[in-house]
Amino acid sequence: MIKNKIDKIFEKSSGKKICIIGDIMLDRYLLGDVTRISPEAPVQVFDIKNTEPKLGGAANVSLNIKTLDAEPFLIGIIGRDIEGEILKQVMHGQGQNTGGIITVEDRPTTCKTRVIASSHHLLRIDSESKKEISKDTENKILELLKNNEKDFEIIILQDYNKGVLTKSLIKNIFKLAKKNNIKVLVDPKFDNFFEYKDAFIFKPNRKELEDAFGRKAKNDEELFKICNELLNKVRCYNLVITLGEHGMKVFNKTDGKMKTHSISTRARNVSDVSGAGDTVISTLAVTLAGGAKIFEAVEIANIAAGIVVEEVGIVPIEKNILIRHIKQNNY
Fold first, then answer.
1. Domain contains 211
2. Secondary structure of 25-66 in the HEC alphabet?
């Protein structure tokens, strides 16, 4: 049972350094009220009461690793703008290391601003660039990684199609990881879906998987076939598919034979699924660093996701809450 091992897993993972490379975002929430219509046009007038900056994308993965008591090292880019400064201030306030964040001149910090009145989401405003980073920026990322390569057992590649994880950068990261016996965990998106070869864990959700193959799996048999094709294409050691309310499936191929393991959802009352994927990849990384076997790590990650989706908004998973939840529910 997981409850008998969970303390040892987190004791071992405590303080372990985990590298995250990918698309960094600032999630900004404008909170206020709407009580009237503008006299200038038939639109609502939004009165701002409060502004809340939060970490998004790869930065949210970094935060989850921090709240699970491991030590994240986040590598990515921001623009030379107020949003980039706010993001670093938030990270500093959480005790996170910002030494891997590169400031570039030719693009803005990816920022998603959500306008919310009385818990109603009125509007989202995005400021971003999706163009690929320059070769110079690629080289800076690789230099940061090489300077710290002996510190990491695990690298997470967190892709949101914002241009940081280019094909050549992905190839070079895997080359460095193989040389140093570092496990690579991938949270992919559409553009580079098939570029991630030989990952220890490849973790798409069902929609991302179906989009990449251009067809829907109408039943478990068709899902199995698609997963088998994917294993052959990307040669990952473990394929972890997140299935929302249907839990997760783990696929691996040993001696040419496909092995599968299904895990039921652990959520009781789903309030908000935002950030659940970030929680899963973070928990996988931390528990693997703590010596968990793959199926144990997936089981714990599934429980962690079940906890965070019961909260409104993007919230990180806390180590003590996760441990207590596992013991109280006799997992």
1. yes
2. EEEEEEEEEEEEECCCCCCEEEEEEEEEEEEEEHHHHHHHHH
Separation between Cα atoms, residue 58 and residue 65, nearest integer Å: 11
pLDDT tens-digit map of 231-246: 999 999 999 999 888 8
Distances (CA, A) of 279 to 21, 40, 135, 198: 16, 44, 31, 22
Is residue 198 situated within a structural domain?
A: yes
Residues acting as catalytic residues: 278
As a whole number of angstroms, the distance between CA 282 and CA 322 comes to 13
How many degrees, rounded to 5, is the angle at CA 271 between CA 270 and CA 274? Answer: 100
Count how many domains the chain has.
1
CA angle 86, 319, 323 (to 5 degrees): 160
> Sign of dihedral through CA atoms 255, 258, 259, 263?
positive
- Enter the DSSP assignment of 7: H
pTM for this predicted structure: 0.94
Distances (CA, A) of 190 to 69, 208, 222: 31, 7, 20
CATH code where residue 210 lies: 3.40.1190.20
Is the separation of the CB atoms in 112 and 87 below 8 Å?
no
For residue 259, the model assigns a pLDDT of 84
Residue 40, in any domain of the structure: no
Query: Is 41 within a domain?
Result: no
**Mean pLDDT along residues 107-130:** 94
The whole domain housing 198 covers 2-24+57-106+129-328
**Cβ-proximal residues to 109 (8 Å cutoff; 6+ apart), any chain:** 24, 25, 26, 78, 79, 81, 83, 84, 87, 127
The string of pLDDT tens digits covering residues 262-271 is 988 765 565 4
Kindly state the DSSP code that residue 195 receives in the 8-state scheme.
G
Rounded distance between C-alpha atoms, residue 276 and residue 57, angstroms? 11
d(CA 276, CA 279): 5
Give the C-alpha distances (Å, rounded to integers) separating 287 from 121, 154, 189, 251, 280.
35, 11, 23, 18, 11
Q: Of 316, 6, 20, which Cα lies nearest the Cα of 152?
A: 20
